[in-house]
Amino acid sequence: MNPRTAVFAEEIGANGEVWVRGAGSRVGAPDRIRVVSAPAGVDSFQPDEMTVSCGAGTSVAELDETLRARGQYVNLGQRRHASGTVGGAVATGWNDHLRLGRGHLRESLLEVHMVDGRGDIVKGGGPTVKNVSGFDLCRLVVGAHGRLGALAEVTLRTRPIPPATRWFRLVDLSTTRVVELITRLHRPSSILWDGREAWVCLEGHPSDIDSTVLDLRRHGFATEEVDEEPEPGRRPHRWSVPPSRIVEHVSARVGRVLAEVGVGVIHSDEKQPERSIDPAIAGIHHRLLSSFDPDRRLNPGAGHLPGR
């Protein structure tokens, strides 16, 4: 544990509401609450082990630059939000539209040191999977908006930067054809579909990508390489649905939505209809909050966790 974490814990203390501020690019700090900032700076980067440790207040840009020099990156949803701090990325848990191939942001988090609502330092996870045992705290804190604990330090899994990242547009994709497309692609990084056409991201060695595209064309898929990827964020609302129901939802809204096939995210101009929260799930959220922050003093009101 870095000594800065102990100083951070002292700043948070054990009384009074407190807000952990990053860059303010995702969520702004309210005026009425005392504000603290997490430690910043890259502490350790081990390219051979493919891990990096840094303060939660480290900027995503600084981390990207450090890793890029050794041909690596860490998946923090940068295509959705490339700025801000590492802690902000983890706390909000915002994935981008390459999640199908690159995985969920939470899979990048190996170890976390944080300060709970009592002012105690809590550690979860480990720098390697084989060292991890007990409660999977890392998965809990991703997307919790800092309400379970104020993030101080994180250890992240890095990956090699792909030799090539290329986007292709496919037209005339009916429901049947998009299902066939999925079966013919090996580990695509993204499939975006609006009910009529699709955009596919393929990453890897250029020759492997060429072979995949050639196979698609042999099977009748009209495939055109494009210079720019689509921007799902132009549609303001994100729906979360079971991946198996993507085709059903898109077929009912052809041309009005853009779906991440295989993931279960739909980008839409309309809000998703309200869904009731299972009382049992709400109860779990409430007990978790009570365990980590019984007085609800950390980032109060942030996120959407019931139990305030």
TrEMBL record:
Gene Ontology MF annotations: catalytic activity; FAD binding
Alphabetic keyword roster: FAD, Flavoprotein
Gene3D superfamilies associated with the record: 3.30.465.10
InterPro entries given in the database record: FAD-bd_PCMH (IPR016166), FAD-bd_PCMH-like_sf (IPR036318), FAD-bd_PCMH_sub2 (IPR016169), FAD-linked_Oxase-like_C (IPR016164), Oxid_FAD_bind_N (IPR006094)
Lineage: unclassified sequences, metagenomes, ecological metagenomes
Originating organism: freshwater metagenome
Domain FAD-binding PCMH-type: 1-161
Protein name from the UniProt record: Unannotated protein
Pfam family, one: FAD_binding_4
